[in-house]
Automatic annotation (TrEMBL):
Residue intervals of the PucR C-terminal helix-turn-helix domain: 342-395
Residue ranges occupied by any CdaR GGDEF-like domain in the UniProt entry: 185-294
Family in the record: Belongs to the CdaR family.
Protein name as it appears in the record: Transcriptional regulatory protein
InterPro entries: CdaR-like_regulators (IPR051448), CdaR_GGDEF (IPR041522), PucR_C-HTH_dom (IPR025736), PucR_C-HTH_sf (IPR042070)
Pfam families documented for this protein: GGDEF_2, HTH_30
PANTHER family noted in UniProt: CARBOHYDRATE DIACID REGULATOR, DNA-BINDING TRANSCRIPTIONAL ACTIVATOR ADER
Signal sequence range: none
């Protein structure tokens, strides 16, 4: 746009107008907010978003007015301050598109009508008034255009940050749900094609070898669905080598899943807890991530892990150095005993120190088990009976680390 500086007299008039805009009457602000929010009932119905729009309206008025007090009639840069940028973030968090910004055009009309009233009160000289209105009209229009373009660009940036460019709508919606953003359940369900009521079990499916045919991840997702009676899973492409999965079920056939995963090369599955509703949807996913991270932290060879089985181990191993010290202090020389001896002690403790049940579970004679327990006591820093819980936890860590199976 060609931009010529106004005359000195009109520059002074613009400065006077800007000073009045800088301190608007409460009824003017109320009219502006009512017009903008009235143009988009969806925004108006959301108190947090409506308040953000109101703050942005005021920030834009002050920004334009301040710029014209400083340099009357010069082009005004877009307002990229925190208030309009917050609008971009809040729209994306709710799953809305840039169309919601069209309401700002209504606000532009309200502001222009008020400014014309001020202009007519500032001068009655026709030439001055014409130039004043012309410059202000072009200035406001260009400023609003540039600011809306900046907000739209920020919306794209916020969305790209959420989606990373993959499976855009699903990934974005999942991110909003996990973040606790105020997107409605009905809107989320429509975008995901998945009901968020009832119970959910989440899983993370991934491969440590991101080369080759990634359809093996999809086969693993299908196995999870088969493990809940053939229910259709919700699957989201978290990255090229990772899928986030949810199934609508209270129970997953873990043994069947493990058998199915054995037939899918280089794929691993971390299963979360089971929970109800949106809170359960989120919690199960976080538990699945905790399970995945524990497997990675321990360099575990296990290909299928369930949060219920590793919750305590994950807690103990969150600090790797302290976990190592705990194992050494608890097990002493027993840390380096053979797998058979360690497994015998672990099963004995899990069977509430009942030798007969433990022997049956191990498919061995009771006397053989008792001899192994005696040998364990010789290697442990303290007798097993004195700290059975600590020994069991330490052995579970070693088991997930691949030491005992």
């Amino acid at each position: 746009m060609t931009w010529e500086s106004p005359s000195a007299r009109v520059q002074e008039l613009i400065r006077q107008v800007a000073h009045l805009v800088l301190d608007p009457a409460p009824e003017w602000l109320a009219e502006l907010d009512a017009a903008v929010l009235g143009a988009n009932p969806t925004i108006a119905a959301d108190p947090e978003l409506a308040a953000a729009v109101s703050r942005s309206n005021r920030a834009n008025l002050l920004f334009w007015a301040t710029a014209n007090i400083r340099d009357p009639g010069a082009p005004v840069a877009p307002n990229t301050g925190p208030e309009p940028m917050a609008i971009a973030r809040e729209l994306v968090r709710r799953g809305y598109d840039a169309y919601a910004l069209d309401a700002y055009r209504v606000g532009q009309g309200v502001a222009w009508r008020r400014l014309m009233e001020i202009a007519f009160e500032s001068t009655t000289e026709p030439t001055e008034l014409h130039e004043l209105l012309d410059v202000c009209s072009r200035s406001i229009g260009a400023f609003v255009d540039a600011t809306l373009a900046a907000i739209a660009a920020q919306i794209d940036s916020e969305r790209e940050e959420l989606t990373h460019g993959t499976h855009a709508e699903r990934r974005e919606t999942i991110a909003l749900l996990l973040d606790g953003a105020p997107i409605t359940r009905q809107r989320a369900e429509a975008r995901l094609g998945y009901r968020l009521t009832g119970s959910h079990t989440a899983a993370v499916v991934w491969t440590d070898d991101p080369t080759g045919d990634m359809t093996r991840l999809d086969r693993a997702v299908e196995a999870i669905g088969a493990g809940v009676g053939g229910a259709r899973p919700l699957s989201v492409l978290a990255s090229a080598a990772t899928r986030w999965v949810w199934v609508p079920s209270t129970r997953l056939d873990v043994a069947g899943l493990a058998a199915a995963i054995d037939a899918v090369p280089d794929v691993r599955v971390a299963v979360g807890s089971t929970g109800a509703g949106l809170d359960g949807f989120r919690r199960s996913h976080l538990d699945a991530l905790t399970t995945q991270r524990m497997l990675a932290r321990l360099h575990s060879p296990r290909r299928v892990a369930v949060f219920a089985d590793i919750e305590l181990v994950a807690l103990i191993t969150a600090d790797a150095d302290r976990a190592t010290a705990f194992i050494q202090h608890t097990l002493g020389s027993f840390e380096h005993a053979g797998d058979e001896l360690q497994e015998s002690v672990r099963v004995f403790v899990h069977e509430q120190c009942n030798a007969s049940r433990a022997a049956a579970r191990l498919y061995t004679h009771r006397n053989t088990l008792l001899r192994r327990l005696t040998r364990a006591d010789e290697l442990l820093p303290r007798p097993l009976a004195a700290h059975t819980v600590n020994v069991a936890v330490a052995l579970d860590v070693l088991r997930w680390r691949g030491r005992a199976r």
